[in-house]
Every structure is written in structure tokens, then in C-alpha cells.
């Protein structure tokens, strides 16, 4: 399939994610209630199916009408942080790649697999990277991350050297993986401020 993937920058995707949050969760209270936003505000159904990951190596996918996100049943039930990230990631495809998805007629896991197989490696890479960035920026908004880092740094003894262990509470507060927190800190260059 010949598609044109816009190569959005990190900054552009962060701006789009900030607008998304302004529209759907302006309070920015954490953890971001992504399931509530998706189901109640966007009216997108979240469903699960068994063995999506084990048989097809798929955590989840969104259909072409942006009316349903299908997740791997085991992941959804056992790994809250991963499920939240996958939901946000799939909404990222809806926000960032709506023209591409609308033309692909994705209704099932088989349709989704055909769509993935039809992409060039480079196009697939860009679509996934962009949706990952969107998901991370939505679940860990920059301003909230800065606030939480300041709180963590403030708990240290004034003479103590700043260290990563003070940030160990952040994944739980945002309900994301440690990896997501560290990548957001790194991309925003937040440790350089302390």
C-alpha cells in the first residue's frame, strides 16, 4: 500500500497531545483517566480478545471508524500500565493518522495484520514512533512531570546530590512504566534543570 506518512517532530506531537488534553482533560489531574476519556468523551469502545499478543504479536489496534479499540485480553487484565499506554497509543493513531486509517477498512485483527503487512518498514516505523510519542505525552504531560520532579527534588536534603532514586514514585503517580517516565524526562531534558 502506498501511503504518505507525515514525519512529525517530537515538538509537533507534544503540541498535538497538549491540545488533546486541553480538549478532553483540562484539569490535567493525574493519573490521566485515559479509559474514561476514550469511552465517555470520545465514545470509543474498549474491548478485549484472547491471544492477540501470543498469536499475532499485537497489543491492540483501533478500527478505521475510530469507534473501537481492541486489546489483548491478558495484557488488559494483568498489566494496567501497558494497557493504559496501548489505549493512548491507539488513540494517537486516530488523532495523528486518521486519513491513513480511514482508507484502510480495519475492522478485525486480520484486517489490521493485512494493513501492517502492506506498509513499508519505514512507514510502519514512523506511524508507531509517532503514536508512542503521543501516548507518552498524553499520559505524562510535560507540566505535570515538571511539577512532580520539583516535588521529588524538594524532598531531598538541600545539600544532597540529585539522583534518579528520588524519581521512583513517578511511574506509580502517572500509572505508566518506568521506561515511559525516563524517556519523557530525557526528551524534555528535565534533569538538566536540577
Automatic annotation (TrEMBL):
Transmembrane segment boundaries: none
Pfam families cross-referenced by the UniProt entry: Peptidase_M78
InterPro entries, per the entry: IrrE_HExxH, Rad_response_metalloprotease
Domain IrrE N-terminal-like: 80-185
PANTHER family: ANTITOXIN HIGA1, BLL0069 PROTEIN
Identification of the protein by name: IrrE N-terminal-like domain-containing protein
Provenance organism: Candidatus Curtissbacteria bacterium GW2011_GWA1_40_16
